Amino acid sequence: MVRQSTPLLVPDLSAFTRSLARSLAGREAMPGHVELQNLIARAAGYRNLQALKARSASPIGARPDTPAASAASAAPEAAASLSANARRTLSQFDAQGRLLRWPTKFTVQRMAMWMLWTHFDGKRRYTEREVNAILRAANAFGDHVTLRRELVNHRLLARRSDCSEYWKLPARPDDEVRALLSAWRSQRLALQ
């Protein structure tokens, strides 16, 4: 059997180790190697080991001599000029632009909401079902309800009191968020 290496990039080591420790707490015996690999993948924000392997097979995990990897190398230049919070926010999204996990830090949450805000058209009204569909596609951790609520809380989306209609609010991002959105768009364009 040929062993294939699976790279693992952990943007926040502290959150990773806390999550892994919670998963291992209360166990009577050490888990087997496959179960431990799944626990590690979950602590890093993936659904399971297969999701981690699929992610490492994507262009972002490609070898440096491939065309997709060389195109992706242009994106870090744009990200280098970002603030620490903006870089942390950018690392919360995968190559497809999906939010991998709900950020623990409020400033990162706020910036992530701006990135999700770009998925909506300001000239139309949405039903709750349409908003849910957009947010399901825009996250990898399966909690579109939290994202919908937070978009409303951050005053990026508005809704009728009976939740029958949603719309994008005309908001103006600050300079830090504008730089983040620009870096995010250039990163996604480099990967296409």
How does this model look, in words?
With 192 residues, this protein is mainly alpha-helical. The protein has 2 domains: 45 residues, no CATH class; 125 residues, no CATH class. It contains 10 helices and 3 strands, in the order H-H-H-H-H-H-H-E-H-H-E-E-H.
Strand order of the largest sheet: 1-3-2
What portion of residues is helical?
A: 40-55%
Reported for the largest beta sheet, the result is: 3 strands, antiparallel
Beta percentage is: under 5%
Task: Describe the secondary-structure layout.
Blueprint: H1 13-24, H2 33-43, H3 49-56, H4 67-72, H5 75-80, H6 84-90, H7 106-117, E1 125-126, H8 128-137, H9 144-153, E2 157-159, E3 166-168, H10 175-191
Helix pairs in contact: 1-2, 2-3, 6-7, 6-10, 8-9
Features:
single chain, 192 residues, 3-stranded antiparallel beta sheet, mainly alpha, 10 helices, 2 domains
Précis, in short:
With 192 residues, this protein is mostly helical. 52% of the residues lie in helices and 4% in strands.
